[in-house]
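Running low. Got one?
___
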Amino acid sequence: MDQRNFIDFLKIVEKLKCNTRHSWTTSGRHESVAEHSWRLALMAMLCADEYPSLDMNKVIKMCLIHDFGEAITGDIPSFLKTDKHEDKEDDAIEKILSSLPNDKHDELKALFNEMEFMETDEAKLVKALDNMEAVISHNEADISTWIPLEYEENLRYGQETASFSEWTKELREILKQDSLKKISESKSQK
């Protein structure tokens, strides 16, 4: 990739640092899409030993790119996302990838396709960790940032994707217990 194309591409995806998510940080500000993707990649790196048969380099790449479309569309929380939103995000991903040289375009497009069809263990792990990163973020944030729907959502979000493996199922159960504790403590403080 020539340097100009490299810089131009980085300028497009820089918006991931600017666009915020529904989640809040412990310091009381909205989390950026880039921060979410970074921590998702870190989660994958840290649990790599649990999945020795997986191509963890591919998993980490998927984690880093999975929300590229949000550089253009912004974040739409999963509980509000419609098929129309998904289509716009797919179009945004293609627009972003089209700015890359053919070999990079094809490599990243293949990763997006793999994540969309969820037929590989790598894609399943990314989806499970992606869902759980959101739950972790909510558990870390002040409960005053939760909307009423999230009291139930935090207890069930990602359970289906976590069924991918015993390790992710156990992680999801721990997160559920953390959510229940947070909810209980907030009620006792009232």
Summary: Residues 19 and 74 are 6 Å apart (CA to CA). The mean pLDDT is 96. DSSP finds eleven helices and two strands in the chain. The longest strand covers residues 20-24.
